[in-house]
Amino acid sequence: LPLLLRRLGLAVLGLVVWIVAVMDNPNEALMLLGGGAGLLGLFAARMQKGLGRPMMLGLLYCGLPAVALIWLRATPWGFFATLFVMAVVWGADIAAYFTGRAVGGPKLAPAISPNKTWSGAAGGLAGSLLVAAALAMLWPGHANLAGIGRLAVLALPLAVLSILGDLYESGLKRQAGVKDSGTLLPGHGGVMDRLDGLVPAAVAGAGAFAMTGWAG
Q1: Do 205 and 160 contact (CB within 8 A), yes or no?
Q2: Distance CA 81, CA 91 (A)
Q3: Alpha carbon distance 173, 192 (integer Å)
Q4: Higher pLDDT, 139 or 32
């Protein structure tokens, strides 16, 4: 049953991604994603006790960031906007890793992820600002002080969300009693371990660009 449900979830996710990419209709994709998650959740709950809610939330957890990034890429300045969201997450993650190793200090959330430190989190925020400023200089319409300020204001909360997304994924693995989220990427802890920070940042970033119009 779990294997069947995973395959059904992947089928729904693939259809959602296809709708957004080919038909350019995020509203229909979101309706399908939400409806599919609900139906799979109900089916799983009836077939196996306690599996319905995780199945439903898991599909949304994987699907919403995909819809958000595809929609963002389709905006007039979508290449820069999508690159910005990803680069902020990558910059924060890389800077946090090296700063934490170099400085050390108090742990950020030792019960969830014992290797993360407050100094690493601070370094990650600084790294996100540097990435935002560098990208602003390449982004037409933002290559000025006002543009750098706008993107810096957006980069900080996205970096915070990426750190929280990383911790959330670590918490899920601890709750499930597993070391890695999958085996598709050996030595990297699974695909979701590489994307855990991007999950909340992609959704929030797309929402922020939609509200501000900074991506056109």
Answers
A1: no
A2: 15
A3: 11
A4: 139
What does the pLDDT read at residue 29?
81
| CA gap 214, 78 in Å, rounded | 10
Who contacts 197 (Cβ-Cβ below 8 Å, separation ≥6)?
Answer: 89, 92, 93, 161, 162, 163, 165, 166
Distance of alpha carbon 41 from alpha carbon 86, whole angstroms: 30
* Residue ranges per structural domain of the chain: 1-74, 75-216
Q: pLDDT digit string (tens) for 159-200?
A: 999 999 988 888 877 777 777 666 666 666 667 777 889 999
Q: Do the beta carbons of residue 134 and residue 148 sit within 8 Å?
A: no
Question: How far, in Å, CA of 202 to CA of 74, rounded?
Answer: 14
pLDDT at 149 over 80: yes
Three-state DSSP at 175 gives helix
- Of 175, 156, 158, 137, the closest CA to residue 58 belongs to 175
Burial of 141-165, coded b for 16+ CB within 10 Å and e otherwise, reads ebeeeebbebbbebbbbbbbbbbbb
Residues 67-88: what's their mean pLDDT? 92
